[in-house]
Amino acid sequence: MTAGAAEAAGTTPVRPAVEDDPLARLAGEGATGALHGPVGALYLSDGAVVHAESPAAPDVGWRLTARGRLSPETWEEAVTQGGPGYRTGDFLVEHGRLSQGELELCHLSALFDAAYFVLYPLGDGQRPPERFLREARHWLGPVRPVTVPALQREVRRRRRLLEQAWPGAAVDAAPVVPVPDADRRRGRGAQAVCGRRAVLRAADGVRTPVQIARALGRPAFATLLDVRRLTALGLIRPPDPGTTEADRPLPEAPGVPETSLLIRIRDALEAL
Question: Where is this region: Disordered (predicted)?
Fold first, then answer.
């Protein structure tokens, strides 16, 4: 039904509630700054998303060092030298530590990963980001901007993937409990594919999917999806329905270098 037909019929046409979506509104304004929420922030420049960070998702530095692509000392040097001028990424490329392509791929993977958790926080009662700090910039510097519509499409796609894999969000924030070996043999344990075996080996009944992702140096969302798929295969035990959020461990902040933390504190103080 068109807007005119809806009005003629005496009904109200459905329009996008941009005013209820801070991210869409800021994109329309061409805003620059950081949109903060309870579990992270989205950084915008001229209305496009240039960075995302969340304690639920390993950041660029963690990904590069955990996988051995860069040493912790090399990453710390880049943050120390390039961070104050918002040029950490440029420093890595200019000094031959990474190619531009490597930096962009790692940055985009980290951005989409963190953005999912910023916009859809794990746990009950968490709200999406609402507080906007104008003109705030990220110490990594510009790498590859993403439009807000593209980001929102990707987030929705990821939501669908999770629901298709296992329609139960309780597994996302709960400790990952593997099914005993005997039960696996009786069930569908043999169907586990190679890409999920590392996640299954890391499941110890204590760590959550986010904590397993950090331990393995893997994207948090991919680990979350693997946990849901392993649950559907009968290899991971679903949480007890009586378990509450208060019973579950909170995700720890990733090992961000101290220098980058100081830079973010400085930026926040300068913006006051």
Answer: 236-255
